[in-house]
Amino acid sequence: MDIKNAALIGLGAMGVFFAPRMEEHLGRENFCVIAEGERKERLQTKGVTVNGVNYHFPICTPEDGTPTDLIIMATKDLGLAQAIKDIEKFVGPDTQILCVMNGVNSEEQVAAAYGWEHVLYSYMRMSIVMKNGKADFDPYWGKIYFGEKINETLSGRVEAVKEVLDTLCLFKQINNQSYADYEYSEIEESKQYKDIKAYEDPDVRYYACVVDKNRAGAKPKLLFKLNLAYNEWFELGHLRMKQKLK
Asked: At what angle do helices 15-26 and 156-170 cross, to 10 degrees?
């Protein structure tokens, strides 16, 4: 199976991790945030600010839903029962659901409504500060865990979800408003770090790449500079968040 479109319900501290990169990598026409009423109006008028960038994601109401390949549920535990009802029209014959919210039996509740053939176990670890519709976090240091109840080998649906999440998380453009949050060095362990240089040329962009995602332990993050006009890539070194003074 191929995952070509997705819907997200819950645009809070966990949902904002997924939304910007899903819209970017799947395409705006293949992604939407499920919301209605006051929440829908707020998201349409004010949007949500993620790491200094204000986003207005496509919104679909529960009533207007159509089947999608992937649904990510990232609501609070108290909102799970309503969220299960709200995703009904988004669940098709091959839809897969990740319920990344904190809740020891959230998958069981979703599976009771839609069947285990649609639900994978999942949770995520991420340090996010969200206040007044603004979220700040390091987009390259989060972890998403998912799979079948028993994973001796990866099932076809797990492989499909893994492929799309790898696309979302392995390689990501660094927004120019976030350059000041990062620094890089030519070697992995170094005492000398450099700032990311800003260019007026819109063809010059920076990308972060997570290396060897499947190995245990810390994953190196590399910084690349791309010049779109000349189709040139340059590996600059190892990327990290700047150390904040307390």
From this structure: 90
**Measured CA distances, 134 to 49, 129, 149, 244 (Å):** 5, 8, 35, 19
The C-alpha atoms of residue 94 and residue 115 are separated, in whole angstroms, by 11
- Residue 8, both tokens: 């997200």
SS3 state at 83: helix
In the sheet that holds 59-60, the strands lie side by side as 59-60, 31-34, 6-9, 68-73, 91-99, 119-125, 143-147
Least confident of 151-165, 185-199, 219-233: 219-233
Residue 246, pLDDT > 50, answer: no
Measured over the CA atoms of residue 90, residue 96, residue 99 and residue 105, the dihedral's sign is positive
In sequence order, which residues have a C-beta less than 8 Å from that of residue 149 and are 6 or more positions away? 121
Q: What pLDDT score does 177 carry?
A: 82
Q: Which residue has the higher pLDDT, 16 or 32?
A: 32
